[in-house]
Fold these 2 entries.
Entry 1:
Amino acid sequence: MTAGQALDPDLPRGIPDGDGTIVTVGTFDGVHRGHWAVLQEIRERAALRGLRAVLVTFHPHPLRVVRPDSAPPLLTTPIEKKEILAESGLDYAVFLRFTVALSRYTPERFVDDVLIGRLGVRELVIGFDHGFGRGRSGDAGTLRRIGADRGFDVDVVPPVHAGEGAISSTRIRRAIARGDLADAAAGLGRHYGMRAVVIRGDGRGRSIGFPTANLGGLPPDKALPPAGVYAVRGSVRTGTFDGALHLGPRPTFPGAVPSVELHLLDFDGNLYGEEVRVDFVDRLRDVRPFESVEALVQQLHRDVARAREILRRE
């Protein structure tokens, strides 16, 4: 691979030989309802024409490479994105490593090297706010011009709305940042979630009657809601359980470091080293100090009762 190339020319084509593909391209962070509309469109068009439906997406987020200070927190890590896309009905999801070299590709070069050269594109379907290529110059007009010249069609899927505005990854990130989990779920079409690994803590929760799984291994660029206590669902190897989660500082215990602690309701078992998926359902309260451990325990009982009620109504 020579300087300036983002793809190794010696690698085989990404898609086995066939009649061609219908492709969409984008970061697809969150794989929200607007993204699903695009994926459904390419899936349906591919079925009608006997072609293959293909998503081309990127990691890391392009801004992490071209403007690191402006890079947003991620709604979905690569593993989470693959997990969601497994239910999309696509024939292929192509994950391209976004590099400085790739960021310098013009839209024409990206089309020629990737969409035509690797994927055999016959039709390109994009979202309403789409842009790729150097400086995001590959907008709908540019792509239609390139498509007319190279012999493939380009279509744009209109936005999907929730409430008063169009759904976007940016809007969902803002909702999560302010703890508005209902607005985030309305955009995602599901509860916002994260994956973590259970690590050893100091055992304080068990000592006060509320055993918790201390969660670690969270990517530093993963979007999280504000510090607080949340009603959640936790999925572990043996099933999915209602729960309450503490996120942030522990001011009742001087010197205690901030933590992410999951209390699964009606669960008894050892989770050390196990991966857990947590889905945020509702925010219960802010983190605050208590005058005594006894006062904290009383509040935890109230938190659990409220979490049960919220999750029962789901």
Entry 2:
Amino acid sequence: MVSEVSSNIETVLSSIEFKHTLHLYSSDVNKYSVQAPFLAAAKKGEWAVYVTNETPATVMREFERLDIKLSVIKPEELGRLTTTDRGLRVVVDAGSIDPSVLRRLRSRTREAIAKYIDHSKREKYLAESCKGCLILCTYDMGKLSPDLVKQLVASHDKLVLTTSDATILAAESLDRAGLAAESVQRFVKDELETIVLALVLREPMCGTDIIKTIHSKFNVLLSPGTIYPLLHDLEKKGLLKCEYGVKTKTYKPIEGAEEKIRKMLEEHVKASRFLSKFLQVTGASEKR
């Protein structure tokens, strides 16, 4: 079944409007969980196509909870998709496609299907022949060479990267700010407790809202496995309390802890300013 990870990254993959998106995931991530939100965003009456070497029964079982019209096809059947298939959502499960099988085929057969099996040739075919489709190409990073990763990134409109505890959508706003996605992700993880306290101090929030807010501000999507243990730890420290609703758990400062949290945040700001000034002065002196 699709695990709860799908809800964690739904705010990224379900809203993808780019024609050709590359999704790289680490080997410890459930590939079906990262594909589900993209498929689930199909509008009523739209068809979705899943390209894979997995059996159709396996794929249909994983997505049986989604209210979509889904067809499962083999990579060599990609020729069925054309530029007239506008609005069609296509997931290419590239992690299940092994280009090395081409070496075992006769030359005529190999030439006929190479554009569907070879990773680079397939991406070129999709870009040229399926312009009316919304395509999500998913790859297991552990199976890719650095050179192939560079080629894949260059041939797609957008890049989404998912590890076991975060999803990053390459963002133009961060690019303009000159911040590398890796640096932002590291900052968010290092300062997560402070970020969460600041958010909850402003207004009571559930874990899902915290995840969505951090994503909207930093373009880093954290998993519940990262957020909820931290919230429980802040409860044990006597800073937050959990209020149970019908379907959600809302976190807020416990009575009397607001002032303590404010002082913690103020101290953090002072320390950050001191560190920033130190780095600026030190960096300037090194240039002389």
